[in-house]
C-alpha cells in the first residue's frame, strides 16, 4: 500500500478517522502534510471534501462519493500489485488474522494444522480479541481479516456472511441439565447468567431474547473473558450462553452440559470483515478458505444434534430437562 497514490491514501485515512491528526498518525505522516494534501485535492477539483469546525472534520456529500471511488482505486492498485508478486512464487510471508475467543477454542487448531501443512512458508499470527477491538484493527489495516458477530462494521470495513451458529446454554455438570438437549430458558426457573459486556455485539440480541421470553434471571455477571466464564460455570451454578461453534467438541460427562436454546431458537450470524481499501492477499485468502471449511465441519455437530433431538421428541418439541 505504501506505493499507492498518497493523496488518495491520506484522504481515505482522514475520512475514516474523522481527524487529520489521527489520519497522520495512522499513515505515519504529519498533520500539516495531511491537511495540505486534502487542500490540494479540493483546489484541484474545486469542491470541498470535508467541513471543518473547531478542529473537527466531517465529510461533505462530495467527500462521501469520492471516498467510495477512492476505495475502488486502492483495491484495484493492490490487486494489480499482488498479481505481479504472484508470478513464479509459492505462498509465503506473514498474515495477521483476528478471531474472537468463540472461534479459537474449537476451530483454530484444525485450521492452523491443515493450513501449515499445505503452506509451510506462510507465517500465521492470530490476534484474539472481541468484536469492537477487531473491527478497529481491521479498519486501520492491521489485520488481513477478522470474524465478528453481525453488526460489527463501519467506514473502512467490507463485510460478508461467514457462518450461522446456534446460541447454546452452558451449565456445570451438577446443574442437572441433559447434555445435547434443546433447552427452554423459561422453564429453568430463577437462573444466574454470565453474559458479555454491553460493548459486545451479541449482548443486544441476548438481552432482547431474555426479555421477550420472560426468562427469570435473578443476577447477571458481565464477563468479557469467555474461558473464565466457562471455568466459573463448571464450578458453580452460574450459566452462560455462547455461540455453538465454541462448544462443538463438548461431550456428555465432561466439565459442562451444553444444549441449544429452543422454543424459540436463537442463533448468531458471524461475519467476515476486511479492510475496504484492499483485497485479501493470496495467503490470507487461502487461510480464510481453510477456516471457512473447518468452521462448517466443526459446527455441523449442532445440525446433527438438532436432527437427533427432533427424532427423539417429535417436531419442535425440545428434549426434557430438569432444573
Please explain how this structure is put together:
The protein has 323 residues and is α/β, with parallel strands linked by helices. The protein folds into 3 domains: 80 residues, Winged helix-like DNA-binding domain superfamily/Winged helix DNA-binding domain (Arc Repressor Mutant, subunit A), CATH 1.10.10; 103 residues, D-Maltodextrin-Binding Protein, domain 2, CATH 3.40.190; 114 residues, D-Maltodextrin-Binding Protein, domain 2 (3-Layer(aba) Sandwich). The longest helix has 32 residues.
Number of domains: 3
How would the global form be characterised? globular
Q: In DSSP terms, counting alpha (H) and pi (I) runs of 4 or more, how many helices?
A: 10
Summing up helix and strand content along with how strands pair, one would put the structural category as alpha/beta
List unreliable stretches of 5+ residues. 307-323
CATH class of the largest domain: Alpha Beta
> What's the story with the biggest beta sheet?
9 strands, mixed
Q: What would the CATH topology of the largest domain be?
A: D-Maltodextrin-Binding Protein, domain 2
In whole angstroms, the N-to-C terminal distance is 57 Å
Mean pLDDT: 87
- Please provide the count of β strands: 11
